[in-house]
Amino acid sequence: MIKPILTACLLFSAVLSAFSQDNSKVYPYDLKCEYLVNPLGIDTENPRLSWKLLDKRDGAVQKSYRVVVDTDSLSVANSKGNIWDTGKVSSDRNLVSFKGKSLAPATKYYWKVIISDIGEESRESKVANFETGKMSRNNWHGAWISDNHDTDYKPAPYFRKSFNVDKKIKSARAYIAVAGLYELSFNGEKAGDHILDPMYTRFDRRTLYVTHDITSLLTNGENAVGVILGNGWYNHQSIGVWDFHNAPWRNRPAFCMDIEIVYQDGTKQIVCTERDWKTGEGSIRFNSIYTAEHQDARMEQKGWNKPGFDDSKWQGVSYRAVPSENIVSQQMKPIRAVDEINPVKVSRFDDKNIVFDFGRNMAGITKIVLSGEAGTVVRVKHGERLYDNGHVDLSNIDVYHRPVDDKDPFQTDIYTLSGDGDEVFMPKFNYKGFRYAEVTADRPVKIADNGLTAYFSHSDVDKIGFISSSNELINKMCFASDNSYLSNLMGYPTDCPQREKNGWTGDGHLAIETALFNFDGITIYEKWLADHRDEQQPNGVLPDIIPTGGWGYGTANGLDWTSTIAIIPWNIYMFYGDNSLLEKCYYNIKNYVDYVNFNYPSGLTSWGRGDWVPVKTQSSLELTSSVYYFVDINILASAAKMFGRMDDYKYYSALAQKVKNAVNDKYLNKETGVYANGSQTELSVPLQWGVTPDDCKDKVAQKLSSAVDGADGHLDVGVLGAKAILNALSNNHQSSQAYRVATQNTYPSWGWWIVNGATTLLENWDLKAERDISDNHMMFGEVGGWYFKGLAGIQPDPENPGFKNIILKPYFPENLGKFSASHVSPYGEIVSKWEKKGGSLIYTITIPANSKADFYLPKEYKLNKIVSQYTGKKIEDISKNDVLISLKAGTYTLYLKKNK
Predict the structure, then answer these.
(1) Which of 454, 337, 306 is closest to 384 using CA atoms?
(2) For the whole prediction, is pTM greater than 0.85?
(3) Which among 746, 748, 750 is positioned nearest to 786, based on CA atoms?
(4) How far apart are CA 487 and CA 336, in angstroms?
């Protein structure tokens, strides 16, 4: 029960004062379609349109909106929408689904939003656009083609075709669907800046295509288009324990492409894949997404993708069956080589052996510039560790590779020189996890100290969360958390970028809050949950890794891992206020829960993997799996109520209560407050996830705090406990213990990794462990989200999700003098920061326009005054004894004094 609540509504006089100031910089901004800025290739019939409101005035709110859509940008600029005009809608919503006339394929649409602000003034956005893609498989013209080789043939297939352009071009697009990977070029120039397209899917159930704007790449007269296909996950030639070489979809890479040219006179030309294309080979002699790429520069056919090339010795292409019936647009943030990183140290053993240290762990590729004798074979081995002698050590990451010979070394690119001066090698169809790269040549080569460059590569999601602190350990931990997350985001979240590259479900949901506080990742997760729906068996079962070629339907692919099907859609709803993913997954969640209910009618289940990689103490598998079962049922019941499925709501609410009771009846000692044997994981998991009865929460939290004391302020958990322990403590009046654990710097702790030089999160607490020892893992990543929740206190409100109403419950540790957190929500930037000065604490809050916040005053502090940064005036009539203060949009400085 909340104590007396004060709504600190801005006084009418303050509002009038704010209006008297300059308010000309008020307008809707950040217009997005399907969470992308001016996207190409939209396949959705009713795409989502969203915007934010820039208005720094206190109490800023949107009173109404009007969306106009047209194919004529001038009409939209003049506020006319012949395709869709919502009219003036009295609403503060900033996310709507298109409901106008049917969208045509391959068409650009312009749109804008007109809102009325708090003073009922009309405010217009700039004109944005989105362009539709194919919209239907029936709209494709091209055939699926490939070369004439089988799955075991190593050299990559190259394809080309010449065509003429004889009129002035208005626009040109290339729509390319690929089973495998590709690089597309026109007249010798690569199309776009993506790498590793298209994203990995269950290829026999869903194949992605990508849309490129190629207008600037075409010229009058003869043009040439070139395509190189890579194996990717479609034709996995490397052998590993995960059986991707036996995937049911496996085949030689193939593609289909339509090039659509619109001329200034309104006519159109279509160039598409057919049997008039030619295929040949080039310098890429082998490529594996799992291991590496091999190129022989002597085999390069110069000018092969330019006009005038003699392709008379090239072969004809073959038709191929469509890999799946579901060819859909890749509507998501692409993978790019985002950051260029130079080595910080170069160790030269001789003129044939050099080790480059890039100073940080990462996922990506390297580019080498070198010269040497023709035929010289150069190997570039990538790893996370060094042997004592300074050479690269792969022993922590090559353990699941099962090569049949020595021709496919792990994480080792192989390049054979042409001998033609300075040469540049950069792989196209692979990525690796590494900090170090060791160059070994069979003859002397010349490589400058800056001759090897690393490219940190990942899904290019926007950074939207920022932490800054007077505690440098926190800053470094956030850096490491970000690095690990991005290293493991390749169109789907992975466990590690080297040893496996698998979409482990548990790792994905354990880090979801850290992900969404820090990065705008919704497009990645919507794609990944589509992968879940593709992989789910008719009985509801999901595999451990998604996508999969068949591995993962074992005995441990249970609730603590595959609850991604419920937990991730729910968190997307919490962070974005958008329930569309939850609705798409509703029946998948229901089938999943029903499977468990049928097989475990008592409400208790041991189906799961358990508290993976604990420090030392094992925890009850039945307890933790049953808690995650409760979580899934609870999400399902909430979704049922949201979507008006009241029979489901009643049934699953009762089932959730049954499971909750079963867990507590068997495992909770209500007298002592101890679950099971009282491990940190056994106490924190039910406490964090809402299984613990209200009248026992304080007792269980105190036992958890005592367990932390018993470990001298350290962790004794695996992945499930690492997700739960900080939240269980800070949400139950034990914030000081949570902070103690989160900033601990001796073994075992997150900080122990950092003080030992880690720049990413690790897979094992023990730096001397002999298994589970990847140095770039995200499964322990909850700490990167807890800083936002547990220190800044920023939390979404389940009753008003998407940060429409912001919960602010900050904690001000005794030994932390300064802290700042910001998160760009669907409404704009939220800021929660403080600085201690003398005996006072100055706390600054920014609440974006069109949202509000509930600030919970820590009991150790009293409020002296609140000042609006916009008006510079004190907000009067604030009772200093209130626990909760509700604030409208604006930036406020709160002056707090610690109670004596």
Answers:
(1) 454
(2) yes
(3) 750
(4) 12
On whether the CB atoms of residues 156 and 230 are closer than 8 A, the answer is yes
Q: What is the pLDDT of residue 879?
A: 43
Q: Could you count the other beta carbons within 10 Å of the beta carbon of residue 690?
A: 15
Beta carbons of 699 and 673 less than 8 angstroms apart? yes
Where residue 38 falls (left for φ over 0; alpha for ψ -120 to 50; beta otherwise) is left
**To which residue do tokens 């891992």 refer?**
561
Which is nearest to 776 in space by CA: 365, 362, 364, 358?
A: 362
Phi and psi angles of residue 408, each rounded to the nearest 5 degrees, phi first: -130, 65
List, in order, residues 6 or more apart from 175 with CB less than 8 Å away. 41, 106, 133, 134, 140, 209, 210, 211, 212, 257, 258, 259, 260
Buried b (16+ CB within 10 A) or exposed e, 882-894: bebbebbbbbbeb
Q: Quick one: three-class SS letters along 69-115?
A: EECCHHHHHCCCCCCEECCCECCCCCEEECCCCCCCCCCEEEEEEEE
Q: What is the DSSP string of 552-588?
A: T-SSS-SHHHHTHHHHHHHHHHHHH---HHHHHTHHH
Four-CA torsion 423, 424, 427, 433, nearest 10 degrees = 120
To the nearest whole number, what is the mean pLDDT of the chain? 95
> Which residues does residue 895 pair with via DSSP β-bridges, in sequence order?
842, 865
Distance of alpha carbon 566 from alpha carbon 584, whole angstroms: 11
b/e sequence 263-278, b meaning 16+ C-beta within 10 Å: beeeeebebbbeeebb
Q: Over the stretch 616-626, which tens digit does the pLDDT of each residue have?
A: 999 999 999 99
Task: Give me the phi and psi of 489, to 5 degrees please.
Answer: -130, 100
Residue 777 to residue 495: CA distance in whole angstroms? 6
Distances (CA, A) of 129 to 2, 107, 108: 46, 10, 7
Q: Please tell me the chain's helix, strand, coil percentages from 3-state DSSP, rounded to the nearest 5.
A: 25, 30, 45
Range 662-669 contact pairs with CB under 8 angstroms and sequence separation of 24 or more: 662/602, 662/603, 662/604, 662/626, 663/603, 663/604, 663/623, 663/626, 663/627, 663/630, 663/691, 664/691, 664/692, 664/693, 666/604, 667/620, 667/623, 668/692, 668/693, 668/696, 668/700
Q: How many angstroms separate the CA atoms of 109 and 83, rounded?
A: 9
Q: Rounded to whole angstroms, how far apart are CA atoms 558 and 536? A: 13
Looking at this protein, which amino acid is placed at residue 524? Answer: I
Asked if 796 contacts 574 with a C-beta cutoff of 8 angstroms, the reply is yes
Between helices 680-688 and 621-642, what is the axis angle to 10°?
A: 10
Distances 200 to 209, 229, 268 between C-alpha atoms, Å: 11, 14, 32
Contact 291, 427 (CB under 8 A): no
Tell me the pairing of strands 432-441 and 353-372.
Answer: antiparallel
State the DSSP string of 833-887.
EEEEETTEEEEEEEEEEEEEEEEE--TTEEEEEEEETTT--BPP---TT-SEEEE
Pairing verdict, β 207-213 and 327-329: parallel
3-state SS, residue 545? strand
Instruction: Report the C-alpha gap between 158 and 156 in whole angstroms.
Output: 7
- The Cα 529–Cα 839 span in angstroms is 50
**φ and ψ of 643, to 5 deg:** -95, 10
Tell me the C-alpha distance between 144 and 277, whole Å: 11
449: helix, strand or coil: coil
SS3 14: helix
Type and span of the H or E element at 422: none
Question: Would you say the C-alpha torsion 190, 191, 193, 195 has a positive or negative sign?
Answer: negative
| DSSP letters spanning 647-700 | HHHHHHHHHHHHHHHHHHHHHEETTTTEETT--HHHHHHHHHTT-S-GGGHHHH
Dump pLDDT digits (tens) for 264-311.
Answer: 999 999 999 999 999 999 999 999 999 999 999 999 999 999 999 999
362-417 residue pLDDT tens = 999 999 999 999 999 999 999 999 999 999 999 999 999 999 999 999 999 999 99
CB burial class (10 A; 0-12, 13-18, 19+) of residue 463? exposed
CA 665, CA 645: separation in Å to the nearest integer? 30
